[in-house]
Design a protein that fits this description.
The protein is an alpha/beta fold. It contains 11 helices and 7 strands. The longest helix has 14 residues.
Length: about 270
């Protein structure tokens, strides 16, 4: 089982200082766009087989903010001539090929999975890997190690006395570093923690009875932004955010054990 291949995905997306778009609107899943799919193919034993960065040209706000470039290292010139989201998905699918039936894909937390769901819905074009089960590696790592609070990628690497390699918040580097944590997972928990696909790839859209709402996803992206120090002071949730958190906690959106898990899984990369 440890020799079976899995895919690690880490996204980077457009973002702005103070969580406000150039149009003056709060940033959220409806206006943040994926600008990189960082991908790493590896075994559960942690052997890196291949990795690739798929850059995406943003359409809604094509000019990257200085904050976004500073955070990710992705410059304007790097995305100007890159493919659109659907074209980038096609390139990713071609690189991945046809996975085996027991294939799974992973990310550090649920944020990446939910953002791909939302972005693919907007474009009507879904990556092939979304038709396969997903494993939240942050969750299985927490269960394995007993670590509850400091569970971001940088902390997880430090816990195992590993130095980060490359640039943090660059998708492909994050994906490679996540793959380095695979040998430390208790893989006996995989069956219990895996999330089964919510889409039918052949139809190119999303069909889910438990689809997270845009409001809930926005609450998660704002939480993630806050944890990345976009805001310098604690934030009291407004009514919309509080309602979205209740929706998630009551099981109307993606299932979480608690509201705290929402912010651990969606709101923390640090």
């Amino acid at each position: 089982m440890h020799d079976q291949t899995l895919l690690v995905v880490d996204l980077e997306a457009t973002c702005w200082k103070h969580q406000t778009t150039p149009g003056g609107k709060p940033q959220g899943v409806h206006n943040m766009e994926v600008i990189e799919f960082g991908c790493a193919l590896a075994t559960r034993a942690g052997k890196l087989l291949d990795s690739c960065s798929f850059l995406v040209r943003p359409a809604r706000f094509p000019q990257l903010s200085d904050f976004c470039t500073e955070l990710t290292g992705i410059s304007q010139s790097m995305v100007n001539d890159e493919p659109s989201y659907p074209e980038a998905i096609d390139a990713l699918d071609q690189w991945l090929g046809q996975p085996s039936e027991n294939f799974i894909w992973c990310s550090w937390g649920n944020y990446d999975r939910l953002h791909v769901l939302a972005e693919s819905q907007k474009h009507g074009h879904t990556p092939r890997f979304m038709a396969y089960p997903h494993l939240n590696l942050k969750r299985i790592w927490r269960r394995t190690t007993g670590q509850k609070k400091k569970n971001g990628l940088a902390h997880a690497l430090a816990f195992h006395k590993l130095e980060f390699e490359g640039r943090h918040h660059r998708g492909v580097d994050d994906a490679r570093n996540i793959a380095r944590l695979l040998p430390f997972m208790d893989w006996s928990l995989e069956t219990e923690l895996v999330t089964h696909p919510e889409i039918e790839h052949s139809k190119g859209d999303i069909s889910s009875e438990r689809m997270i709402s845009l409001e809930a996803m926005d609450a998660a992206t704002r939480a993630k932004a806050q944890r990345l120090n976009i805001l310098r002071k604690p934030r009291v949730p407004n009514k919309e955010t509080a309602r979205a958190m209740r929706e998630l906690d009551e099981g109307k959106g993606q299932s979480y054990e608690s509201v705290e898990d929402l912010f651990r899984d969606l709101g923390s990369d640090e």
